[in-house]
């Protein structure tokens, strides 16, 4: 909650412009809208400079549409729906058409990221790098979040460490990045290698790619946490959205 | 390896100033010193803007002293020895005295961080916040790394979520931070709460504090990875050093 | 087994009204009915003041109907069928109609709670609070159990800790609760926050909501067990039924 | 934070008796004392009716003494130090003597519970039951917390399920309990058996007793979570303190 | 390999009735038939007094039929096919009809036990006891194996420990058993309770019944391994076949 | 509880020789002695034909002595103390001397099995076989239990499967065994091999021998549970006592 | 990257035949082709003497076809597609027909290995041995890789250790093998037994065959890692491809 | 067991030179010596071409001495004692002096490898490479085994992937290796990188180096098993001995 809001309210109370009981109600209800099934945090966008985001799975298309409508109505920043299925995309598309908002859809029909009202383009150099082609969907989600916030990341795919020389041609890009997202399943070794090269924040995303001993991403997660490269940080398994958000946190004020 | 170095060497070869065989040897040996027991990466400091760091455990005091001597001799940036024991501290102190370098020691005698040649003071607002008093040693390691790099972090201790109102007086500090490190054991819930408030990068450090179901830090690690707060990133259990490094990566160019 | 029953039987034996051999048989068979596929514990309701409950999965609709018929015939308290599928609901509905008992169904068709013969309404203030909208089905099961026993819980949805200020408006409700059920997946941090505020019993339910590092509820389970808030207790993953029963145990004598 | 406090302060602001800026500071700092190394939550005692508790491990004897001094000075309720070692006990004893407060010490010298200023005796019938003699220390910690709050629990030791008939003589006690704590290691089966008998809240504590497949308490923890007895709740491994606190939460208003 | 066979062969060699090279070949090939896709161990039946058993999953119906044909042709004891699907049952039924052998099928069509040529009826008193109705299929598999070997087990269903008094009527049966199989999922506590009562071998079978913290049988497995009842032994999760075989091993010579 | 006891008591009540209230007390208290710190189950020996056993760890020498004194006084069968340390052995030795009972001690001073009043020698052929020399202490505990009950097991040491031919000379012994205990750490493969050869009950004991991937016995435990040899059963890690007890259960009536 | 290539390029630069900037580009791009969605490492075949391999899952048939086309065009060695589904097989078949290359398909339609341009036949004696018939598909994948490289392995199926004598007839084959692959699920004991017999490299493949305590291959994996047979090495669960590649690495220069 | 031995014995029987009963005894006892506490497999050295090895931990110095004496007396190949402590080294040194055998000791006094009668020097190019200096002891054990067998490995230390360029100078060595052992803790990424470069067998050894998320070697183990580099094989955690043995298996016939 923004401190200045609190002070404004207290000042109004002091001036007799606001009853104490009303002030208490105001303080409690101010920062969100209650849709019954969901509470929308309108202040987070202001407070943290991050997009309004709706996580699709488990929500009815109608619920997603209601939340998106509320977000478009009450804010001005980007709105993103993650892991949306086809019915949810259709519902959001209808909302967008009604309100004259453009939208972009990235990913498979069964699990797509939908972006509305993207931010103005920023200059920051962000690199998203994957170990294998199968890590693509996670990278797509990360890129969609970054696009929503105005970033134009360079995406390097299929750079796994088993062919370490494939990275040589990309060294300049990695060395020049202001933030790097490393997406890898199996043993996740790419995070350590990039972590030893890239100068800025390196955010590692373990993916559930691989089978058997990859333990659906747990092996990569543990390996990235135990990485010998200092200062590498990790987000949850397959969490491309979180990685994009971490980039926004890190570069937010640099645009 | 810095691309310009490669080009310089290739240009010298082209100019006949360097034999191809010598160039190959040069390319291979350039970026580190080989002490036999350790290979020192002098270029990482330049490449990544991070301090030269020596991990103490498992190294003989003499080996630590040799590495520190080499680092002081060939570089100009800060040098840090982590988790040093008493004998290692003594050995490093001797090196410092011989070379007229000041050093500071933080933490217990059995596991201290030793900083030599710290960087000039920076202005960035960094906050380090712990859930309980028992998380102190991890915070100390993190703070030592930050001091080495010139940061003067604000440290908030004992702000666990079981008394969530204890955070209210610190809201301004957290809302104003350019980077926040959250250190918590047990269930690690503080990372989610701070992650919902702080605007910049939030780096969570699970600690091995707690017993039984805390599983020596694994519970906090998993909880932080699964955090409902978007964009929070995580480093390894008790890895205060890594968290400090992650801050350096994130804020490196903002000083 | 009720002690007074034992004494009654022994007194009858002493009075010569009951043969020892018959008494032994009586002692053994008294407290349940044997349907072949299931043994119904009629005394639990008396002994523990809890509803007669039937766990649906793995039972044939006909078996469920037989058990419900037996429960309605031999007892007077509420009866609840949990995680019932459509065929089971139909079978129970037929039983209810034949016996002129009303029934209510909560939840999805594939996994619903069916309540028959609910108890009279009680005054106790119970709060059920969820971290996200996806925790809804678990809350529904918990609420159905509470309704069966006569409680009218206040349900607060979507109060996850990433927007901690969303809780402020509910503080009075939580501070006033005689018992609180906290339902959360992902990292389960809400249990610690509520545990630090609510005065009465706080029962935490980890849910399988979340993906990757949430480990299908194990992360939330461990986090809740390791909670820094004193006196919080935990039931099994997704076990809304158990949480409701724990409330009944805690408040049973307060109505 | 107590709502009435907030309203009082707002009313004072409305009356002109308090400047808005001062009110903001007051709101933030009111509910705790800051000792530098620890923040003491004086309001929790009022808010939740639970004792002020200090967890010993990892704190210097001087720190423990400071916290206890503060707690005795600013509150009126019971104070408890858990898992205190010999030096901490000595430090607390000195504080007690200076302030003329009596104290009692339960458990081993290396890990004892110290109780100061216990509450007046309550009438509630609480039962603490252990599976084996080795579960004793956990029971002792639980009993110390209960004593601090005024409860006089009945303690039944060595009632493991391998000799289920040993429970028969205790049936009346268990059936009559208003709250029951079940403490068991190994496979933790006692919780299920007692959960099927006891009418009120049943709080299960897994212990690290057992070896090999007992997995230092994880087996008992999982077994208790998966218990077939409805409404049994669980606290962390060896967490006798938490179990005692859970009883206080459940029976707090019944005294 | 039966020692007497070896001696017979060596004696024949000594007598000149067998060439050394032929003897070597004989020694190697004697105890099984090679069907290409499977090697049938005809001697196990003789060596261990256990039925010839075929594990269905992953085998083509034709392969199962071939193995059963071979087993019927070369042996005289019972033959059992476990976890057979409908196509495999049909294939085996055809074999049985061609050879004039009767067969019995137990369980679901998708996972049944097929028994051919069962042994003569034995007198031994075997008890199979389940904690809940959902453990039924595992009990069925166990009973089928026992029937194949001539045992007529008493089956007690739905005797979970949450209603411990339901066991009282069965005490005589359990106390009189020569071998007892305990089948339980969730927390598996029934094994400890029965293990404290039954005098003979007690074989515990953890089942995958339960959800969440039951971890698909791992919780029951660990709990049974850590059981406080001495001498209880455990077989794999859902392994009703193994439990039946263990009974055969224990009682084989008692018939 | 022995049914005949119950009937006797009820008959006395019927005959007016016993008051109902006294009968109830009698029923409850009969089968054990209460030493305060422990409840001794005198009937288990009669009920299950197993030795009275005291688990040493965590008990004061004085407590062990009291329990042993009680066991010697009120029973006639063998008494065994497991994992006794030096002080406990001394205390038990004093008890033995006072009562004129001989005792034998097996194992290390820090963890020995003490046997008093062993049973008469039995003829049954029991084999205890270990994979490596490091499994010796577990075998010793198992053998001590067997000796207490009158068995004279054949012990085969260091028969690990990496040298499978070392087993050939022992084939006759294994084929002739009435019960076989297989003790193995590391990967526990010996249980599968012996399970394929031995005809009677095969009880596998995983040991914590091995390092790294042996996971302190969990690997062997899982491997033995998943064994491809039918009817092999498993006891807990390092539980030589339990294995011995399982043999007693299996062979009890064959002596 | 082949050193001679580097030297050649440097020599060309020294001779003025190549501009330094061009050389840098050449060095970076030389060893692979970039298809956008995948980077093909043409040098690995030369560098490591292993076949070009394409992992099917997650790739569109069109993508697989493009990669195979590129591999056939630019190399001369064998090409293998693993775990190909029907659509991918069809796409590759079309490529093969267009280019006049023969191809062989091994395994199920849903998961087959496709081999194109196999190497000339080699003489090395390789043995692939499985514990059960269910391990067949993993063996098939391994054999396909070996065939691609020119090996003609002897395949021994269904040699599990529960019938250890079934191995006797194969002893000569195993003792004579230059490399042995052991494929086993459940408890994986076969690896230890073969590891104690076979003289050359023994590569163990844990499979996900088995249920319950087999933990989808983790039990076999751990057991094989902890094997008491010295020098046995392990690849990932179900990784028949990796095992074949390990044989190629071991025998590559012996052909 | 060597087939020729079997044939020899059978031929003697056929010739009447050997009684069948004696032959049976001979077959069984031939390949090992029984010291009571250990069975020595003299044939393994012949059968597998590997050194006679004694694992120190858990054996009395006297036992180690007896085994070494037996091995020196009856064989001619190298003998190695692993993880020997000081007392065991002293005992072995005495044996060596008595028999005039030279011995070499590698490693710490508390855990050393002792080699006696090393094999003649071989030419094979073996490389042992570690990720960090802390992996040294595992490398030392591996090197001692290799020396015993006559190999003179090149050891590259401290080549972790965080400074991937440190590997460049070693590329020729790795590309030229006939076998490579990669030893790494933490995330074990080095195995994947080397696996993508080295042409021959690559044997990865996870070490328990690292803390927290490194899970005492389990993270590296899983990461190496899941490695994206084809044909890399893995041995147990810290198992330098096993890795050396695997090299012996792979290169045995190439000397």
Key attributes of the depicted protein:
homooctamer, 255 residues, alpha/beta, five-stranded parallel β-sheet
Question: What report would you give on this structure?
Answer:
The structure is a homooctamer of 255-residue chains. In chain A, the strands form three sheets. The first copy, chain A, has a five-stranded parallel β-sheet with strand order 8-7-9-10-11. In chain A, strands 3-4-6-5 form a four-stranded mixed β-sheet, sandwiched between helices. In chain A, strands 1-2 form a two-stranded antiparallel ribbon. Chain A has ten helices and eleven strands. Chain A folds into two domains: 3-116, no CATH class; 126-251, 3-Layer(aba) Sandwich (Rossmann fold). With 255 residues, the first copy, chain A, is α/β, with parallel strands linked by helices. The two termini of chain A are 25 Å apart. In chain A, helix 9 links the parallel strand 10 (202-206) and strand 11 (233-234). In chain A, helix 4 runs parallel beside helix 5 (86-99). Residues 28-32 of chain A have low confidence and may be disordered. Chain B binds chain C through residues 131-132, 160-164, 186-189, 191-193, 195-197, 210, 212-215, 218-220, 222-230, and chain C through 131-132, 160-164, 186-189, 191-193, 195-197, 210, 212-215, 218-220, 222-230.
């Amino acid at each position: 909650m923004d401190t200045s809001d609190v002070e404004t309210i207290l000042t109004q109370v002091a001036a007799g412009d606001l009853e104490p009981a009303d002030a208490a109600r105001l303080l409690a209800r101010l920062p969100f809208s209650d849709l019954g099934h969901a509470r929308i945090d309108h202040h987070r966008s202001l407070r943290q400079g991050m997009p309004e985001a709706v996580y699709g799975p488990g929500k009815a298309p109608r619920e997603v549409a209601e939340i998106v409508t509320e977000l478009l109505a009450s804010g001005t920043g980007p709105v993103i729906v993650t892991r949306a299925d086809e019915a949810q995309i259709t519902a959001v598309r209808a909302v967008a058409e009604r309100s004259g908002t453009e939208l972009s859809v990235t990913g498979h029909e069964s699990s797509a990221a939908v972006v509305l009202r993207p931010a103005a383009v920023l200059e920051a150099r962000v690199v998203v790098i994957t170990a294998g082609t199968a890590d693509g969907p996670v990278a797509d989600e990360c890129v969609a979040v970054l696009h929503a916030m105005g970033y134009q990341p360079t995406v390097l795919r299929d750079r796994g460490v088993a062919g370490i020389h494939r990275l040589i041609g990309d060294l300049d890009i990695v060395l020049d990045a202001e933030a790097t997202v490393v997406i890898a399943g199996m043993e996740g070794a790419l995070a350590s290698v990039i972590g030893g090269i890239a100068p800025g924040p390196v955010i590692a995303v373990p993916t559930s790619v691989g089978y058997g001993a990859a333990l659906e991403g747990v092996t990569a997660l543990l390996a990235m946490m135990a990485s010998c490269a200092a200062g590498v940080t990790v987000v949850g398994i397959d969490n491309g959205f979180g990685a994009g958000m971490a980039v926004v946190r890190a570069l937010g004020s640099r645009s």
